[in-house]
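User:
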Amino acid sequence: MQQALCSIDQWIKTRQVHYVCVTPAHAVMNCYWSSQLRHIYNCSGLTTPDGMSIVWLLKLQGFRKVERVYGPDLLQAVCQNSLTHEYTHYFYGGAQGVVERLSQRLIQKYSGLRIVGLESPPFRELSPEEDEAAGQRMRTANPDIVWIGIGSPRQEKWMADHLKRVGSPVMIGIGAAFDFISGNKPQAPKWMQRSGLEWFFRLVSEPKRLWRRYLLHYPYFAMLVLLQQMGVKKYPIN
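Assistant: Predicted structure:
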């Protein structure tokens, strides 16, 4: 987490533009199936291990000091860090009302947090005119950090497409963190997060939406990892 915060500080200080992909196992599978998405992740400023399975696999690969950089935790750590540096924030995503409750909770917890924009886009592809108008609103607000919560892989594609068009130094895609921190959806207890059981909590909470991800994609992910560890299959980065 500290490395992530240092990178974000540096980007804002130098006005470089980067996006951050917060990455659980199902995002890795999306990249496995899509070369376009794989390129987007490989071009990110940071791709962080969001799930414990990713953390454990990285440790197995020899990265002993790796830690989980979980979307909701990253959001709160950056907000805390922002109080010292006076960074400004723009929140883009979530259903109607979610982003407003998210903003209220963050301001209550981090008094003095500077939020310069809130927007809940419709859950569909925007017309070119709507998309340009949204980008113009962000450019006018001129935030240091834009938080994107429109779901993966949509948010990663959005960040890659809008990074230079918006011009903010940092874009971070955090998906369900909008729902968790706003209280719109329940979050797994800390012990389940640490033990790698958060997927089970989320499956029980939203079985209709998430059953395919956890019951089909995750076993396939485990099989591909096993083949890699056995030396049967290799995965080039590019």
